Amino acid sequence: MVIKVDAVVVKEYVVGESDKYITLFTREYGIIQVGAPRAKKFDKGLASGTELFVYGEFVLTQYKHTYKLISVEPRYTFHHLRENLVILSYASYIAEFVSEVATESSGNSELLTLMLYALHSLNKSSEESAERIRRTFEMRALVVLGFTPELTRCVSCGMSVEGDEHATYTFLVEEGGLCCKKCRSMSALITLSYTTWYVLNYIRLAPYKTLFNFEIKPYVLQEMARLCDEMVAYYIEKSFKTLEFIKSLGILS
């Protein structure tokens, strides 16, 4: 059976001198493994169309759970991602994150859309913006995956939490949200400033077209980073090799 899928390449590897295998994240089928015989050596179109980050329409043959590439029509190649090692590393992390959390036989169109917007932002960004884009992606990905942080009510008593520029907010990762002063304990708390609380609400609700279009102060990024690290560790429970490489570059502490 011949099928067409809307997909992005999240992994690629060469077998022998000419064959390639790629992992596609598709809107229709989630994660699938695809063989591309002779793509690397004899077919320049297939070789470039099966590189990491390429987004397009892939024509495949399907037999049970086996897929083989016939052709690809790239829509975006994100070629600028490869011009800077730092940007490439962050883009590779996003691809690895998606390949780890996405499932086989179950599409997730919203997660694919989020990934594409994140790659677009990295494709035109500077090194200084890469960490902000990463943290924005992580937080919105948690929302897409069903781990939306509760930012408007206390997770213990349900009392409404209002915006107050003089307030300090406390977040319980295990409960997935804020807790009020009456309910909070001294254990497992993350402290957030009003500005960080505001930014998190923005990330939770913003349209994808404007999701990555903001700047924040370093202390806000630090608070976001700690929250994202704790939430990803607790809810995703995956380790990512690309983060270790980014740390080796001296980008992360």
How many E-type strands?
Answer: 8
As a whole number of angstroms, the C-alpha radius of gyration is: 20 Å
How many separate structural domains? 2
CATH architecture of the largest domain: Up-down Bundle
- In CATH, what is the homologous superfamily of the largest domain? Recombination protein O, C-terminal domain
Uncertain runs are none
Average pLDDT over all residues: 89
Largest sheet: 5 strands, mixed, barrel
Q: What's the number of helices?
A: 7
Percent of sequence in beta strands: 15-25%
CATH level-1 class of the largest domain: Mainly Alpha
Family: Belongs to the RecO family.
Pfam families: RecO_C, RecO_N
Organism: Zhenhengia yiwuensis
Protein name: DNA repair protein RecO
Task: Explain this structure.
The chain is an alpha+beta fold. It has two domains: 2-76, Nucleic acid-binding proteins (OB fold (Dihydrolipoamide Acetyltransferase, E2P), Beta Barrel), CATH 2.40.50; 79-148 and 193-248, de novo design (two linked rop proteins), CATH 1.20.1440. It contains seven helices and eight strands. The protein has helices at 44-49, 85-101, 109-123, 127-144, 194-205, 218-236, 241-248, and strands at residues 2-15, 19-26, 30-36, 55-63, 66-76, 168-172, 177-179, 189-193. Strand 4 (55-63) and strand 5 (66-76) form a beta hairpin.
